[in-house]
């Protein structure tokens, strides 16, 4: 439905009709017949997800409190503890001071310490440990 004509400067000066330019159409990607994905194998079994999360500190999807949550300042991977096998920086019920490190966000192999924006008590964990977060993803709810 569309025709594009490209001419050189010399062709415009000579005022001769140029032959129509060849039209190239993009082809769909070839089918991945060599790499079939069996429909009988799910990518992640849904039954194992709830059993792997601790029942006492299950992350919420939306803050139930009226207080604004502490949000992620960057995209990366959220970690509650300074290293594997170490205790978390904070847990529900902990009192924190403004400027206290509450978690780490790994971005491009750099560990960025995230500090509390205000003093108060951690009432909710809103992000899951080891999972990716984006900018403005709620991490914690801190009630003054």
TrEMBL record:
Low complexity bias spans: 49-65
Domain Lipoyl-binding: 59-143
GO MF annotation terms: acetyl-CoA carboxylase activity
Pathway per the UniProt entry: Lipid metabolism; fatty acid biosynthesis
Ranges annotated as biased composition (Basic and acidic residues): 1-11
Main localization of the protein described in the UniProt heading: plastid
Residue stretches of biased makeup (Pro residues): 17-48
Superkingdom in the source lineage: Eukaryota
Localization: Plastid, Chloroplast
Cellular component aspect of the GO annotation: acetyl-CoA carboxylase complex; chloroplast
Biological process terms in GO annotation: fatty acid biosynthetic process
Keywords: Biotin, Chloroplast, Fatty acid biosynthesis, Fatty acid metabolism, Lipid biosynthesis, Lipid metabolism, Plastid
Region named Disordered: 1-92
Task of the protein: This protein is a component of the acetyl coenzyme A carboxylase complex; first, biotin carboxylase catalyzes the carboxylation of the carrier protein and then the transcarboxylase transfers the carboxyl group to form malonyl-CoA.
Protein name: Biotin carboxyl carrier protein of acetyl-CoA carboxylase
Organism of provenance: Brassica napus (Rape)
